[in-house]
Amino acid sequence: MKISYNWLKQFISTDKSPNELSQILTDIGLEVEGVEEIQSIPGGLAGLVIGEVKTCEQHPNADRLRVTTVDVGEASLLHIVCGAPNVAVGQKVVVATVGTTVYPLEGEPFKINKSKIRGEVSEGMICAEDEIGLGRSHEGILVLPAEAPIGQFARDFFGVKDDYCFEIGLTPNRADAASHLGVARDIAASLRQGITLPDISSFNAGIGHSVPVTVANHDACRRYSSLSIHGVKVADSPEWLQEKLKAIGLRPINNIVDVTNYVLHEIGQPLHAFDEDKITGKHIVVRNAEEGESFVTLDDVRRQLSTEDLMICDEEKPLCIAGVFGGLNSGVTDTTVNVFLESAYFNAVSIRKSSKRHGLKTDASFRFERGTDPDITVYALKRAALLIQEVAGGKIASDISDIYPDPVKPFIFEVNTAHVRRLIGKDIADKDIIAIIKALQIQVTEEETGVLKVEVPPYKVDVTREVDIIEEVLRIYGYNNIEMKQQIKASLNTAPKPDKEVIQNLVADTLIANGFIEILSNSLTKLAYADQEDTAVKILNPLSSDLDVMRQNLLFSMLEAIAYNQKRKHADLKLFEFGKTYHVIDGLYVEEQQLSLSMTGAQQTPQWNQNSKPVSFYHLKAAVDALVKRLNIRDLQIEDVDGSHFSYGLQYLKGQKTLVKFGAIASKALKKADVNGTVYYAVFNWELLLKAIRKNKITYKEVAKFPAVRRDLSLLIDKQVAFETLQRIAERTERKLLKSVNVFDVYVGDKLPAGKKSYALSFELQDEEKTLTDKQIDSVIQKLILNFEKEVGAEIRKG
Question: Which residue range(s) make up the domain with 548?
Answer without folding.
Answer: 500-692
